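If you are new to this repository, start here. Below is one unmodified record pulled from the training split, so you can see the exact layout before writing a loader.
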Amino acid sequence: MSQFELLRFERVGAVAHVQINRPEKRNALSDPLIAEIKQCMLEMPSDVGAIVIDGVGDHFSAGLDLSELRERTTAEGMYHSLSWHDAFHQVQFGRVPVISVLRGAVIGGGLELAASTHIRIAEPSAYYALPEGQRGLFVGGSGSVRIPRLIGFARMTDMMLTGRVYDAQEGQDIGLTQYLVDAGKGIEKAMALAERIAQNAPLTNYAVMHVLPRIASQPMAEGLIMESMIAAISSGDPEAKSRLAAFMEKRAAKVTRD
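And here is the target side for that same chain:
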């Protein structure tokens, strides 16, 4: 792994813990930080089975670092947006699942980054906003694609037009997060889930990350044939055969309610 200036990186067994490290800026996302996120995902060690990402301090990310804004040509603005798309694509469509732990501000680009992760865990301090409309801007980090898939087009429209802010409970209720935990418990929950995910068959994890969202955006007929193909590929994998044999021989635990 490269040495990062704006990220912290730690290994805990098969789990990588990545932290945005700009607490003095509420972990605002600068272009160098975006580049480091992309590089971190691309260089992730091959024996990592899951990733947990959060922010150092009280906030996940307050979004775009407005102090870095400058006049750009139309072409420069496009390239800037595409660089964010590229980084967040590596988060969503990288090699292993990513869990985000959300505290404090999850605003603008911070919400776009969170939306690119596969599982989102909130603590009670988390709050969500898309203030681009009040800044004379438009989302540029893939938010218009990813966020409506979580909360719906109408809710995102409301957030951008009115500046509406959702608190942690509201974010859980509308689907921004899958888990809401007590204060200070986010990392503990994320690490437990990541360790469980890392024990799954790698091919299944990869299919859930890469194929499931694409099936969801396809017409039914195309989605069903793709599902059949991936199901056949997965079940034919030696790892699947070994795990099924262990279950049939009562060497694997049955599903129970925790």
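Two things worth knowing about this chain: The chain is about 45% helix and 15% strand. The chain has a mean pLDDT of 94.
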